[in-house]
Amino acid sequence: MNQHKLKMKLLKGSFGICRLDSNSSIPNWIDYEKFLSITKTDDELSIVCSEDGIPNNIKCEKNWNVIKVEGPLDFSLIGILSSISTILSKENISIFAISTYDTDYILVKNKDLQKSIDALNKQGYEFV
């Protein structure tokens, strides 16, 4: 990636990463008003959504924050996720990454949020 550092934005709320069976339908408890990502594979239906409405019987990791890389990002850009994940891995911060057509989202656990922001700021990433 070139030396130009990108702007980041922290999305409001706390999120969960859920795993359902691959033959499951998209559930009706999802809050469509907030950040949402749905991925279906032959192995699973993975949903990232606001943790507020997630039922207790759903296999889920809660207490995640979402950091948005301000986009849109051109497909020719190289190493964005690599750069960010390297910075955070050096701080022993686990991430869950989601890419969309326009940009990337990095999820970090609530307990690691301030440490993540500090590490990214130190490397020139700006939070808006």
UniProtKB/TrEMBL annotation:
It comes from the Bacteria. InterPro entries: A9CJY8-like_N, ACT-like_dom_sf, CASTOR_ACT_dom, CASTOR_mTORC1, UCP008459. Pfam families: A9CJY8-like_N, ACT_7. Residues 60-121 form the CASTOR ACT domain. Gene3D superfamilies: VC0802-like (3.30.2130.10). Residues 13-57 form the A9CJY8-like N-terminal domain. This is Putative amino acid-binding ACT domain-containing protein. It comes from Gottschalkia purinilytica (Clostridium purinilyticum).
